TrEMBL record:
Protein name from the UniProt record: Phosphatase
InterPro entries noted in UniProt: HAD-like_sf (IPR036412), HAD_sf (IPR023214), Pase_PHOSPHO-typ (IPR016965)
Active site: D9 (nucleophile), D11 (proton donor)
Native source species: Daucus carota subsp. sativus (Carrot)
Keywords annotated in UniProt: Magnesium, Metal-binding
Length: 253
């Protein structure tokens, strides 16, 4: 499957829920989180709630236990494994950094320090991350003929989808924010659009695209080899063009 880069969003794409809300709801911090969101960005509110959980005696193990209960569609994991040919599944993860401090408290920081060095994107990207800039970096590292398949659901997935050219593919989740943004003007997205609704459809479309791209790549290689063989034959024929043609052998009737 050389030549294909598959990029997944996480929340509501790989898993079927928002992982931040899942932890906060599971540990009883919903009301506090909603109050904090009226005065600060999402990441700052998450960090503040983690501090409050720690003060209440909740541990990293409690958070891990909640995360282990995250629901995931049974077809998503096989789709990811098949898409990545079982090769460690993911080659790169771009996310908001987090760490456990010396007190045992989970800290969550923004991917982009929007107070000191905002990303400056004019699309609908959240202040903590512009996925479009991440896509541009990934694209700059790819070989000429490599193709990207991008899967996502949120408004933050719109910007990276705009960055992809017609040789690439986007898989927006239907009836989610990114789908609404695309539907306002589909012409703005140059990549080929293949929407999906659930894990089963994700698997079918993704593996179908990979098979189609791989088959096209094989045909292209075969055509190139055939063209190369034709050129070689023509060159040899031209080299010997000045020589007399061999006499035809008589055929008995």
């Amino acid at each position: 499957m050389a030549g294909i880069v598959v990029i997944f969003d996480f929340d509501k794409t790989i898993i079927d829920i928002d992982s931040d809300n899942w932890v906060i709801d599971g540990l009883g911090g919903t009301a506090l989180f909603e109050r904090l969101l009226t005065t600060m960005p999402w990441n700052s509110a998450m960090d503040a709630v983690m501090k409050e959980f720690h003060s209440q005696g909740k541990t990293i193990e409690d958070i891990v236990a909640i995360l282990k209960q995250v629901p995931i569609h049974p077809r998503v994991v096989p789709a990811i494994k098949a898409a990545h040919s079982l090769g460690q599944y993911f080659s790169e993860i771009n996310t908001n950094p987090g760490f456990v401090d010396e007190e045992g408290k989970l800290r969550i920081l923004p991917y982009v320090d929007f107070l000191k060095a905002p990303h400056g994107c004019s699309n609908v990207c959240p202040p903590n991350m512009c996925k479009g800039m991440i896509i541009e970096r990934i694209q700059s590292s790819l070989e000429k003929n490599e193709k990207i398949i991008y899967l996502g659901d949120g408004a933050g997935d719109y910007c990276p989808m705009l960055k992809l050219g017609p040789e690439n593919f986007v898989m927006p989740r239907k009836n989610f924010p990114v789908w609404s943004l695309i539907s306002e003007n589909r012409d703005l997205v140059k990549a080929k659009i293949h929407e999906w609704t659930d894990g089963q459809e994700l698997e079918q479309i993704l593996l179908g695209l990979i098979a189609s791209i791989s088959e096209e790549e094989k045909r292209s290689i075969s055509s190139a080899q055939l063209f190369s063989s034709d050129c070689g034959f023509q060159t040899i024929a031209a080299m010997h063009g000045h020589e007399a043609l061999p006499r035809a052998l008589p055929v008995r009737h």
